[in-house]
User: What shape does this take?
Amino acid sequence: MAMIDKLDLRIPSGSVFSPEVREYTRALPYETYTTRVRPAVHYVGKADLRPLKIDALLHMQCKHGNHDHKLEIFDVGTKTYSQVVQLIQSVAAVRVDALDVMRIDLAADVPDVTVPWFKDHVRFKFKRTDKEHGALKYGMIGHGETETLIAGTRPNVFRIYNKTAEWKVQYRRMKRRENKDADSLEFEKEFGVKETDILTRIERQCGGDRIPPELATFGHLMRAPEFNPFDRLEIISSGRKSLPTPEECDGLEYYTGLGMHVQAERVGMQEFRKRLNKQTGGNAARTLQRYSKFFPDEFYTPISVQQIYATYRASVMEQLAA
Assistant: This one.
């Protein structure tokens, strides 16, 4: 699974659309309530191009600024770089490499580690104020109740979620639409994992003025393997499988550390570290290091941010090479 997972591009206002797209969207700007063109908040209209076998949504004529268009490409993670290029060229005659990136989601899949484990062990290193980076959110998201951890505020957001659970929801929808005369769908064939597999996706969304300069245009995507989207993650790991015993600790260390462990488990590592910083005069890092043995990895093999980046980098290199 390729890990450039979402991509929106700016199409300049003076661009010439392909004959098929021009014909398909000819109602604009006069009619925006047709079966082909729908109303939009920030654009004159939007058109789903999938009936043209173009896997994208075209947002036409922004109501602000230079009246540019936006091309929202679906299922980028299943497409190679050359396939994305062909898709763009089927929409408009543009210099593909020069198109501005309006949103990009970069992701890595981590097998055999659950979302609750990340909640207890991961910290997001935001440089801005609490108000700007938002409260850490953890819970069941959407109708499919996919377990999700969210940090940050749009357009700069981190998500950690149960990818297998999300695919199960998608699979149920596919089964409902399944043609009775076709071969029966199988989960593992469709998604490459078993329904019982644990697969957690770590995703960074960048958009608006938060697009990294290294990925500012479509042509810059060739640099994506060298860009680390997870450099603001920190994983608190002790290398231990269980909590220490009182005999392994000095004085009141056991009871202090145990209290820290319970509190971090209750509110999550992100919130706990913030509170600890206030209580220790900014010495949360030093305190966590001293009491690190009270944050065991349980039965999981500890994973590092560098390993997550390596997984992302390998998948992106494969996507861009194809």
Summary: Residues 246-294 form one domain. The chain has three domains: 1-99, 107-231, 246-294. The chain has a mean pLDDT of 87.
